[in-house]
Amino acid sequence: MCHKPGEPAIPGVEYFRPDVKCCSYYPKLPNYLIGGLLADTNPALEEGRRRIRERIRNRVAVTPQALFTPKRYNLLHKYGMPQSYGRVSSMLCPYYIKEGGLCSIWKFRDAVCSTYFCKTMAGKEGAKFWKVMRAYLNQTQETLSWYALHKMNWDVESIWDYLNELDSASLQAEDLDETPPPDANYAKIWKEWVGREEEFYIECYNLVTKLTREDFDRISGINEKVIMLWLKEKYNNVMHPQIPSVLQKNPDMKIYPMSDGSTYAIRTDVGFFTILPALHDVVNLFDGVKPTDEIKKIVFEKYEDELSDELLQTMYFNHMLLPA
Ligand code: SF4
């Protein structure tokens, strides 16, 4: 998604900034994932733990259910999408390590970060699959974080007002300055756990990790079950696509030779990609008349190599090839 220095820019493509990439996002981290990170002893996650501890100390959008996205960021994100995405350094994630472009909490990142891909092998069908997977994992995060609260005998009413306030579209002075709520309000949210928030999150993690798959099925609701059926359908669309036996090269596909002389950039309505000249030649064989089996034989005779079903599916999913 980033423009390579020295390469001609592909017309119509809005590139990401290499120092921002897809991390112009601020995840909401459920209680048990925070606890997992804090309890983990891997030194590679130390920077992530330091940043999470700093967030807890700052008390902004810090609740027993989750470390929420602060309101100011949420609204900027809402009105800045999609044009700002990948392009604005002020919207960088607080857990992003600029040096090397790494994630400091990788193993414990949320449902959105775990399922976002700039490009997928299966084009639009792949993007749909990951979107539904995101919905499923988001639902799962909700279930597990509320389960942990329930097991901790949490008085839901104590956080209700604050959660509603975080969800509302109005901005107070403290939201704009990102200052903590007044001590009395914070104490109402956290009660006897004020100052022991880390301990609370680790308890949540311990409760969730004890769950078996059967336990999860028992505590999860109809939403998970409905989304799982939907997810299976998307999975089948990706893994067992119905590809017509005669295909044609997409007449609207744009092809640009790259300055290195050994690759082509192509653009379809799905996205843009770089391909090798041999693949470019193979795509040109699809004339809307010859069946794919015949083209496979031509490819084998010419290149002594197989045109695999996997590669064919990728070209089809990414609209390099269309039904004849
Ligand atoms: S949590 Fe990690 S992967 Fe997600 S936006 Fe932040 S730095 Fe990127």
Sum this structure up briefly:
With 324 residues, this protein is mainly alpha-helical. It has helices at residues 31-39, 46-58, 71-80, 111-115, 123-151, 157-167, 173-177, 183-190, 197-209, 213-219, 222-239, 277-285, 292-303, 309-317; strands at 29-30, 66-67, 96-97, 102-103, 246-249, 254-257, 264-267, 272-275, 287-291, 321-323.
User: Which shape, going by the Cα principal axes?
Assistant: elongated
Largest sheet: 3 strands, antiparallel
Share in β-strands: 5-15%
Computed structural class: mainly alpha
Mean pLDDT: 92
- By oligomeric state, this entry counts as single chain
H/E element order: EHHEHEEHHHHHHHHEEEEHEHHE
Distinct bound molecules: iron/sulfur cluster
Supply the key terms.
324 residues, mainly alpha, Outer Surface Protein A, domain 3, 2 domains, 3-stranded antiparallel β-sheet, elongated, binds iron/sulfur cluster
Give your account of this protein's structure.
The chain is mainly alpha-helical and 324 residues long. It folds into two domains: 29-120 and 139-219, no CATH class; 246-323, Alpha-Beta Complex (Outer Surface Protein A, domain 3). It is built from 14 helices and ten strands. It has helices at 31-39, 46-58, 71-80, 111-115, 123-151, 157-167, 173-177, 183-190, 197-209, 213-219, 222-239, 277-285, 292-303, 309-317, and strands spanning 29-30, 66-67, 96-97, 102-103, 246-249, 254-257, 264-267, 272-275, 287-291, 321-323. The radius of gyration is 24 Å and the shape is elongated. Bound molecules: iron/sulfur cluster (SF4). Residues 23, 25, 27, 93, 95-96, 103, 105, 109, 113 line the site of iron/sulfur cluster.
